Amino acid sequence: MTRPLDLLAAVADGVDPGPFALVRREGADHLDLFTGTVRTVDRLADIPLPDDAPGPRTLALVPYRQIGERGFAHVDDRVPLECLLIAGHQRIGLAEAVAALPDAAVVTRDAGFDISDDEYARTVGRVLDEEIGRGEGANFVIHRTLHATVQGPPLAAAATALRRLLLAERGAYWTFLVHTGDRILVGASPERHVSVDDGLVTMNPISGTFRHTGAAADRDALLRFLRDPKEVEELYMVLDEELKMMACVAEHGGQVVGPYLKEMAHLAHTEYLLAGRGSLDVREVLRETMFAPTVTGSPMENACRVIARHERTGRRYYAGVLALLGHDTAGRQTLDAPILIRTAELSPTGGLRVPVGATLVRHSTAAGEVAETHAKAAGVLAALGLGPDAPRADPATAGREPAPSLADDPEVRAALAARNAPLARFWLDQRGATALPGLTGRRALIVDGEDTFTGMLAHQLGALGLTVARCDWRRPEPVAAYDLVVVGPGPGDPRNLADPKMAALRELLADLLATGRPTLAVCLGHQLLAGLLGLPLHRREAPYQGLPRDIPVFGTTRRVGFYASFTALADADRVATPYGPVELSRDAGDGAVHALRGPGFAGVQFHPESVLSRDGMAVLADLLGHLLERPALTGHGRAGRG
After folding, report:
1. Which of 345, 523, 526, 626 is catalytic?
2. What is the pTM for the complete model shown?
């Protein structure tokens, strides 16, 4: 077995010791050294996971192009899915590792971004106008890459960068160096993507960026940041998007814990934790959660299309994950996967890439997002000698507990706690029995319009007592076996009936109305339903993306969350339609239709399933009482009014 210090000495001397990984996980007083051989595989399902012994067995480098496994759009750069098959695992004390890693100057040349600040700013403007403004989604992450050439042995430069990150960076989920022979990755990622331990699936959405110079962050400025609507809504949106993922990999969806402040050397973020019990193979968990909305956008499938339209090149490992797979002592599978951000990639010939991205939302400004990319790159660039150094810790104090932070300040804690006040308790609390009388055993089908909000909706309807199935709009199921059909949300312009999705969903709604089968339409489904009823559709001047509002819903004020750029309009609260009289809940100012209901059907422009919808469960309970008051169509009994 390779002695750890011998390996580090070889690296410091510029000698290639073979494939290895050095990993410090958050709060650990040591680094894990993994050695072994490297294998390239095609799919996540092919990642080796031998069960011959407990502990970590494989470290996978998952590139962004694996998103193709889900059928999502991407620029295919042919970057491989490499796996370090772990043959040796040893621990090195943090102080011991810092002392053994090289501390020489890292020299680079020809450093510069592939996209200039001005060009990136223009891209931001196009995405805000052409994508968010036209209903293609709520937020999108567009990246740019700094390129340079390292002088001298790249592995020694990466080891020096690792040492500096261990000393200067803080708050990282993983600080790591991975060497496969064909590439080197070194970085300090702040964000866990997904982990599985003891059957508990955990995700960690992080968003909002507070920039500082490395000195003590200004308390008043931090409090302003924590109350900034743009920063608050940005975190809410990625929280919603990761709850969608948890709905697919955890048996009862995810429970929300937080928010917390994550402080790093050059900036601070806000974060939540999501947790839920699951039983999927960890490779399937990886597949179902490709990739984090914090590095792609939402809704996920269309975010990938937007990225492919606006980015010049493939992302390589940026926005992918490192994934450490293994088994615990009881034989259960384990997974720990940080997102590959704040990471540099070096080639054997010294080519250096540092990709960074900014999250674009309706409040974004071009200048602000340009500055955010520079701030996010600062830590790893400083470690590589390409920026001002963050304050360095004394090597003798490596691994000791940090001094008290602003996260301990009572006003900071209060500002964070206040973010939960308007949110849906369904996702924040332990869930008890909420089933409505008469719904148990009745069946609902949710038709997905390319927005996996439908997964969260399925958990809510299930909690209310329904048995729920989902299908893709491209592969619809026969509706005769269901008491209720939900035509769900999705991106796009509902007026464009040349779009195959719009045409198919409108045809489905027309058939449901004609046959009288109980129908609930949500967001895009609501817009298409309103169009069928003869109401005009209108593109909003300012998108309602990630926007919570207090609105009237059939006589009761409800707090609900919107993700829409289009709305139906009406100038009266009741309209006559070919399908009978329809009652509307409208905006008093502009006539925007928030909700509608008629004989056997209803529609809502907002998302009752969103974490932004504090009153979402109450709205659903009321609508189910309206829709399922008649005897069941499938012979399961009679629903109560709830």
Report:
1. 523
2. 0.87
Separation of first and last alpha carbons in the chain: 66
Listed residue (596, 564, 571) closest to 583, CA to CA:
596
Residue 527 · residue 539 · CB < 8 Å: no
Consecutive 10-residue runs of the chain (642 residues): their mean pLDDT? Answer: 79 90 95 97 97 94 96 95 97 94 89 93 91 81 94 93 90 95 94 95 90 66 90 89 93 91 84 94 96 87 91 94 96 96 94 92 86 83 71 54 72 95 92 78 94 93 94 93 95 94 96 96 97 94 86 96 94 94 94 96 97 96 87 38 30
Residues 275, 386 within the same domain: yes
- Known catalytic residue at 471: no
Residue 284 appears among annotated catalytic residues = no
Whether 147 sits among the annotated catalytic residues: the reply is no
Whole-angstrom distance, CA of residue 208 vs CA of residue 438: 44
Range of the domain at 609: 435-627
Cβ–Cβ < 8 Å for 142, 307: yes
CA separation for the pair 123, 232 (Å, rounded): 23
Cis bond upstream, residue 72 (ω within 30): no
Note whether residue 174 is domain-resident. yes
Would you say residue 491 lies in a domain? yes
Q: Six-digit token pair at 518?
A: 């109980």
What sign has the CA pseudo-torsion 570, 576, 577, 583? positive
| Same domain assignment for residues 412 and 522 | no
Here the tokens at position 8 are: 């580090």
SS3 276: strand
Catalytic position from the list 136, 191, 609, 626 = 609
- From the candidates 143, 374, 459, 607, give the one annotated as an active-site residue: 607
